[in-house]
Design goal:
It is a single chain. It is built from nine helices and four strands. It is α+β, with helices and mostly antiparallel strands and 229 residues long. Strands 2-1-3-4 form a four-stranded mixed beta sheet, with helices on one face. Helix 1 packs parallel to helix 2, helix 3 runs antiparallel to helix 4 and helix 3 runs parallel beside helix 5.
Amino acid sequence: MAASKNPQYTLRYFDRIGVAEGSKLLLSVANVEWAEEHPEWPLEKPNQPFGRMPVLIEKHANDKDFVICESGNIERYLARAYGFIPSDIRQAALQEQLRDQASDMFAAFISQLVAKSEEDRRENFAKFDGLLDKLVEVQTKQINANGNIGYMFGDRLSYADIVTYAFYKIIVVGMVKRQANIVNIVKPKLTPQLIKLIATVEANPLLASYMARGDSLAAIVTKPTPARL
């Protein structure tokens, strides 16, 4: 069942760019009332449904709170509730598989950060690098199939656009403190089609307030790389 009329939302997550980014974007573009909550961690860990975040709390005036967790689950719930995923199950599946691929990519990225040996790190990085090449290829193909108009499906913002943007923002902006050279790794791989999609998402008027709170991904990926001396 879709969300009831005019609910209020609280999104619990750490005060950083991470796996809740897609949910934040969806809440913003849905133009609903929402707020972030940053529980003290790990003190509040036992109080979360599965002992992890993000957690979404949907509040209704005349009903008990509806609480769900897991980033992909929260995203899909919001995307369905506010019309960013098609009702046709096949069309929906085409968008959702892109999100799952991005999730696998993020896991591959983290694996090379936490590798216990240099050999494992190199092996895990090579896996991440290869998967990223394939993901960019698939994403670009879909953008081209849609006429290269800045969207992956149709002529307006969709779940696929939002989670694609979120993935690159998590990697390029959110992870730079953990891997300083990540911009130089990812940026050369991004095609003009993907850069256009990133800029289109950022330019959405309903996202203006949220985008103003942090670094512009579009500015980072379009900034000229300084020449080596």
